[in-house]
Design goal:
By secondary structure, the chain is an alpha+beta fold. It contains 6 helices and 12 strands. The radius of gyration is 19 Å and the shape is globular.
Length: 236
């Protein structure tokens, strides 16, 4: 079930311009082809902490995040939330919608900040994928990339220390989402989110970040980490 289907003024609207960060979903497609794909999308805006879809909902829409940030997670049987991915502009999710008979969404997507998305209904994106087979190729590449990250994360859980996992996670977020400032690279992430992505407890994440802060490697403020010395985070 889709949790929000309205633009800011309460109506659907087509995007007037391409996203600021073009999604990998459109890689290798001609400008005319991308224009056609974008013209078929609807723009939807959601507020911070608003659910976009939940695990088990019928996969009826494909999404590309255009502005803002989100989280993709799943609840364990214990009731604990497992954070799978931070969503940033350009990320595509709900990719199973491309299938002729989509399975339910395997995770839940929620906005962390006010966000804007491009959304395609199942029938629409299926027609576009037939006209532009590169969409399906790109979708498979994205899924394989996600799978590789989850495999790497599992292997790291078995073979690496908490410090190594946290450092690698912070560096990865810095590469994907960081903003370059005079004093370093700023990453918008809380201790809890960072710890969840690195599979360490919030206490351990806070302790390690405090240790790095004492050494001048990072600076921590509410919901932000400023990386001063990324090379110092490469833990042997």
């Amino acid at each position: 079930m889709l949790r929000s289907d309205k633009s800011e003024n309460g109506h659907h609207s087509n995007p007037a311009t391409p996203p600021n960060l073009l999604s990998k979903l459109f890689s290798g497609i001609s400008e005319d082809g991308v224009a056609e794909i974008l013209a078929a999308a609807r723009t939807r805006k959601v507020f911070a902490k608003q659910m976009i879809f939940a695990t088990g909902d019928k996969a009826t829409h494909l999404f590309v995040l255009r502005e803002g940030r989100g989280r993709y997670s799943r609840l364990a049987k214990t009731g604990d939330e497992v954070l799978l991915k931070m969503l940033v502009p350009g990320d595509a999710f709900g990719i199973g919608t491309l299938l002729e008979s989509p399975s339910p969404y395997i995770g839940s997507a929620e906005a962390i900040s006010d966000a804007e998305m491009l959304v395609w209904e199942h029938a629409s994106i299926r027609r576009l994928a037939i006209r532009h087979p590169q969409i399906a190729d790109n979708a498979l590449r994205i899924v394989l990339h996600y799978l590789k990250r989850y495999v790497d994360r599992h292997v790291g859980l078995v073979t690496k220390t908490a410090e190594q996992r946290l450092a690698e996670t912070l560096l990865s977020l810095g590469h994907r989402t960081g903003r370059t400032l005079p004093a370093g690279v700023q990453v918008d992430v809380t201790n809890g989110q960072l710890g969840a992505l690195a599979d360490v407890s919030p206490f351990t994440a806070s302790r390690l970040l405090s240790g790095w802060e004492e050494k001048g490697t990072v600076s921590k403020s509410r919901g932000k980490v400023l990386i001063h010395l990324p090379e110092a985070l490469v833990v042997d």
